[in-house]
């Protein structure tokens, strides 16, 4: 069932619904065998981009190359891509076996081969023992596996997943995203996964593209985008980000960043120009030792105990900062209303 993995290349893609342009100049290359995520909020263009690759919706301007072949103007049935929809789209009156066989029958595959391929696909997703059940007799996770089996049985060049986990409860989503990744690795298929859930993208994707307003804001590995966001949108969208506004001051002894309260933070000599300092919650620590080079003062507004850590909301530096402090048994909490000193790890800060 495994096919040779192919490259997907998108060149200067534009797509409009009437007079509204929803994709604007998209360019990207997805490597053979990659598990790639399109990530963004509702209306960002991520599902529209996936559907443009599948051939659903208006014909775009630009090129979509799969394995070197431009498929941008081909109908969906000539692209040899497999798509799993958010709703699974199973035939309710057909058994699991018949649902999986449907695509092969439409392609006029020899009947003697259909049974073998269907059993192989169902075994791959662990549902061979439920082949004769109806979709209504299955759980949400099992229905999703049927949708996957129905897609991979036709041996597509590319696997497209349009928010396939959004209908599942939280615990099942965690299990199913692991199974999705395991299945993709077994098949070796180039796969694109659309989601608005940062955790899903971070835990499955080799690389990802963050979209907003029909434009790719940044591409890279989950770690690259989290640690070095290209702009404030990416910084805020990928996890929790503290944004401190101020003024960069360059000097022979190194650069400093003066914040609204007048406190000064020390930055590396190679700092880029910028007026906003981005800090993750774990890059700020409430301290009792005053011998730190980069201290700011604030007042605790709120506290949440999260088990392994305590999350504080602190009013400081002209903003409200979120701080994740490692929980240690027997250590007193900082209470709302308390004035605290915070040490800022500027080595992991990003200036934008």
Automatic annotation (TrEMBL):
Which InterPro entries is this protein grouped with? AAA+_ATPase (IPR003593), ABC_SmlMolc_Importer (IPR050093), ABC_transporter-like_ATP-bd (IPR003439), ABC_transporter-like_CS (IPR017871), Mo/tungstate-bd_C_term_dom (IPR008995), P-loop_NTPase (IPR027417), Transp-assoc_OB_typ2 (IPR013611)
Top EC class, one word: hydrolase
Which GO molecular function annotation, any one, does this entry have?
ATP hydrolysis activity
Q: Which SUPFAM superfamilies match?
A: MOP-like, P-loop containing nucleoside triphosphate hydrolases
What is the topology of this protein in the membrane according to its UniProt annotation? Peripheral membrane protein
Kindly give the Gene3D superfamilies that the UniProt entry links to this protein.
2.40.50.100, P-loop containing nucleotide triphosphate hydrolases
Q: What is its EC number?
A: 3.6.3.31
Q: Does the keyword Nucleotide-binding apply?
A: yes
Q: Which residues form the ABC transporter domain?
A: 8-238
Q: Which UniProt keywords apply?
A: ATP-binding, Hydrolase, Nucleotide-binding, Transport
* UniProt cross-references to PROSITE patterns, sorted A to Z: ABC_TRANSPORTER_1, ABC_TRANSPORTER_2
Top-level taxon of origin = Bacteria
Give one Pfam family: ABC_tran
Q: Where in the cell is it found?
A: Cell inner membrane
Cellular component terms, GO, for this chain's entry? ATP-binding cassette (ABC) transporter complex
Give the family, as the similarity comment puts it. Belongs to the ABC transporter superfamily.
Q: What is this protein called?
A: Spermidine/putrescine import ATP-binding protein PotA
């Amino acid at each position: 069932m495994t096919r040779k993995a192919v490259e997907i290349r998108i060149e200067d893609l534009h797509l409009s619904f009437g007079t509204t342009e929803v994709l604007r100049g998209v360019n990207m290359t997805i490597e053979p065998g990659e598990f790639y995520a399109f990530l963004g909020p509702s209306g960002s263009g991520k599902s529209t981009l996936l559907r443009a690759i599948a051939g659903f919706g208006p014909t775009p301007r630009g090129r979509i190359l799969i394995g070197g072949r431009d498929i941008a103007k081909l109908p969906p049935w000539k692209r040899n891509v497999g798509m799993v929809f958010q709703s699974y789209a199973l035939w309710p009156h057909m058994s699991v076996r018949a649902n999986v066989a449907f695509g092969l029958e439409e392609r006029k595959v020899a009947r003697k081969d259909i049974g073998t391929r269907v059993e192989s696909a169902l075994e791959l997703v662990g549902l061979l023992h439920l082949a004769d059940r109806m979709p209504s007799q299955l759980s949400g996770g099992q229905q999703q596996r049927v949708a996957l089996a129905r897609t991979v049985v036709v041996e597509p060049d590319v696997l497209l997943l349009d928010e396939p986990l959004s209908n599942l409860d939280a615990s099942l989503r965690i299990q199913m995203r692991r199974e999705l990744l395991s299945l993709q690795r077994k098949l070796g298929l180039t796969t694109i996964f659309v989601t608005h859930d940062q955790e899903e993208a971070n835990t499955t994707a080799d690389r990802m593209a963050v979209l907003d307003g029909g434009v790719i804001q940044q591409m890279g590995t989950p770690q690259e985008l989290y640690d070095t966001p290209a702009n404030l949108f990416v910084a805020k969208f990928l996890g929790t980000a503290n944004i401190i506004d101020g003024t960069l001051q360059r000097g022979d002894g190194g650069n400093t960043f003066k914040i609204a309260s007048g406190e000064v933070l020390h930055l590396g000599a190679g700092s880029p120009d910028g007026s906003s300092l981005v800090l993750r919650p774990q890059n700020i620590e409430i301290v009792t030792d005053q011998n730190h080079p980069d201290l700011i003062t604030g007042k605790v507004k709120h506290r949440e105990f999260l088990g392994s850590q305590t999350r504080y909301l602190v009013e400081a530096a002209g903003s409200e900062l979120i701080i994740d402090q490692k929980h240690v048994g027997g250590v007193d909490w900082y209470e709302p209303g308390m004035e605290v000193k915070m040490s800022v790890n500027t080595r992991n800060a990003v200036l934008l």
